[in-house]
């Protein structure tokens, strides 16, 4: 039986995407071991989710460090001690120092609520509505020093409906995020997906455009 993929999760809030990963594992869809859930906020609800599941947790307060760079190096040093194979950013609301994350490139993914490269950063739903977009969605990408600019692995899209506001758009997108992220992690855990020197490799072939979530599966 193959060794489960060791995953560390970074989150700043309620942890709904982490909960989706946890549920997928419980359903037998994810052969992974969660070795750590780390956060920058002591009151983050994600901590309770992890503790209830018996997963080690860590809180590291940025206010205890001189600057972002010092914090990020300390954070990744402690994460490294748990020996994860993959880091998953699931609502981790911090920009990470490029030098600190460099050793993790290819082993760190993030889920972002837009159809990248559109709307990097914050307020993605507001910006999509302001632009009059007919489609909105979520992307899972490899993390690099460029904010939300790493190679995009997969995307899920949905129509923007008449009368949508930021709240309803976010609410309708969240279930798609909860399907997309576990599906991508499952591919990585199965050894089917990796970041190579020349880009993403899927099933031993270069991936020239993001996988798309359709009818309950990821398709080329």
From TrEMBL:
PROSITE patterns listed in its UniProt record: GART
Top-level lineage group: Bacteria
Pathway: Purine metabolism; IMP biosynthesis via de novo pathway; N(2)-formyl-N(1)-(5-phospho-D-ribosyl)glycinamide from N(1)-(5-phospho-D-ribosyl)glycinamide (10-formyl THF route): step 1/1
Transferase in keyword set: yes
Residues of the Formyl transferase N-terminal domain: 6-185
Binding site residues for (6R)-10-formyltetrahydrofolate: 68, 93-96, 110
UniProt keyword list: Purine biosynthesis, Transferase
Site (Raises pKa of active site His): 148
Keyword Transferase annotated: yes
UniProt catalytic activity: N(1)-(5-phospho-beta-D-ribosyl)glycinamide + (6R)-10-formyltetrahydrofolate = N(2)-formyl-N(1)-(5-phospho-beta-D-ribosyl)glycinamide + (6S)-5,6,7,8-tetrahydrofolate + H(+)
Pfam families per UniProt: Formyl_trans_N
Residues annotated as the enzyme's active site: 112 (proton donor)
CDD domains xref list: FMT_core_GART
EC number annotated for this UniProt entry: 2.1.2.2
Residues that hold N(1)-(5-phospho-beta-D-ribosyl)glycinamide according to the record: 15-17
Entry similarity comment: Belongs to the GART family.
Function: Catalyzes the transfer of a formyl group from 10-formyltetrahydrofolate to 5-phospho-ribosyl-glycinamide (GAR), producing 5-phospho-ribosyl-N-formylglycinamide (FGAR) and tetrahydrofolate.
Protein name as annotated: Phosphoribosylglycinamide formyltransferase
Organism: Dyella flagellata
Upper classification of the organism: Bacteria, Pseudomonadati, Pseudomonadota, Gammaproteobacteria, Lysobacterales
Gene: purN
